[in-house]
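Key result, reporting period 2: structure in, sequence out.
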């Protein structure tokens, strides 16, 4: 595996066979050799970019191993989130995950404008994503949605543009968990590909550099990947120690698709509609708690270390400087041991937190139908 100052994401089956060491081993060796366990970074100073591990996208481009999420979970306003983006980029973040439905891209654009004007960072140094929302899948709407995000963010191009959910079912922001849209319907490969073709056109026109999928399943990917002229560079998916999605994770990696993990610390601030009595708190998992206690750190940082060393890009959200600074810094120091990684791998409880029940269609049995639990795309 290529080394230097990066944790490289092996692309495709051939690359996977050629590389003898996995991402965890590469990260550990990099920490030990290049970082030398020299201790933490002064919180008052921004992190040097060379100290942040990277992963490799399809085609060879390297991107940071950890990003900043910008979904406020119905609890934080656009101004707070934009200020967090400003402070995070100042500290050293270069990967910012946005979406039209988060309703804050215009304020984030103002923060980016300040950063550019102050010379804090150049556009080419950032990797910025956005997503088309479910109600903009129709003919010509993806282009319109992307242009609106570009206008709001004050950018000429996006680095990565996702199809947020693989169907046109949508809900009003802040709706209740039992809310249903009468126009919702099951996944259709034909409908999805009509949306994906519009995303491919965005690449052709230079409005986005890469396109990606989100909230997919293996059966859905098997249905659409053979039809794609431009393959997805990334797959955004729920990933945390109690929900590791090993089959989907492996499938993505085997097909050269970078897994990007949302809810990487278990999303303690997620909306009430996404909470159930059966949910597991990742910080209370024994292996996570032990690793945190051994280091004297918050269990959330163990979740992030695990994610980075596993080879996915976690995108934690926080508006608090001490939290988002510590989140990024933890990826540059004191990696988990092989034994700790294996122990956390054994903590998978198949506990999905973002169930998506608001997207159900008439006749669906429950949220499980969204996720093809029986190994087939339900009609």
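The corresponding designed sequence is given below.
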């Amino acid at each position: 595996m290529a080394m230097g100052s990066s944790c490289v994401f092996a692309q495709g089956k051939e690359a996977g066979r050629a590389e003898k060491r996995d991402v965890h081993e590469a990260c550990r060796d990099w920490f030990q050799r290049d970082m030398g366990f020299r201790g933490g970074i002064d919180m008052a100073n921004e992190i040097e970019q060379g100290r942040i591990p990277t992963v490799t996208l399809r085609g060879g481009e390297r991107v940071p191993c950890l990003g900043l999420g910008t979904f406020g979970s119905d609890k934080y306003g656009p101004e707070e989130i934009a200020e967090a983006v400003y402070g995070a980029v100042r500290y050293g973040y270069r990967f910012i995950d946005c979406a039209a439905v988060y309703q804050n891209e215009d304020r984030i654009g103002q923060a980016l404008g300040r950063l550019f004007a102050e010379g804090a960072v150049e556009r080419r140094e950032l990797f910025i994503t956005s997503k088309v929302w479910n109600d903009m899948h129709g003919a010509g709407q993806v282009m319109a949605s992307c242009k609106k995000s570009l206008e709001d963010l004050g950018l000429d191009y996006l680095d990565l543009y996702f199809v947020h959910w693989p169907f046109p079912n949508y809900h009003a922001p802040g709706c209740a968990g039992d809310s249903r849209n009468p126009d919702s319907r099951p996944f259709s490969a034909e409908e999805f590909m009509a949306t994906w073709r519009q995303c491919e056109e965005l690449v052709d026109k230079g409005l986005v550099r890469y396109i990606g999928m989100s909230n997919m399943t293996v059966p859905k990917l098997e249905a659409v990947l053979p039809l794609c002229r431009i393959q997805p560079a990334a797959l955004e998916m729920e990933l945390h120690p109690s929900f590791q999605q090993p089959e989907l994770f492996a499938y993505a990696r085997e097909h050269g698709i970078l897994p990007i993990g949302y809810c990487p610390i278990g999303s303690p601030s997620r909306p009430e509609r996404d909470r159930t009595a059966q949910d597991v708190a990742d910080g209370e998992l024994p292996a996570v708690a032990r690793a945190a206690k051994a280091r004297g750190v918050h269990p959330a940082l163990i979740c992030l270390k695990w994610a980075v060393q596993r080879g996915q890009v976690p995108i934690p959200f926080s508006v608090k400087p001490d939290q988002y600074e510590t989140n990024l810094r933890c990826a540059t120091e004191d990696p988990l041991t092989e034994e700790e990684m294996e122990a956390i791998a054994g903590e998978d409880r198949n506990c999905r937190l973002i169930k998506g029940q608001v997207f159900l269609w008439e006749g669906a049995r429950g949220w499980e139908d969204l996720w093809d639990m029986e190994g087939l795309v339900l009609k």
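The mean pLDDT is 88. The chain is about 35% helix and 10% strand. This case is discussed further under Risks and Mitigation.
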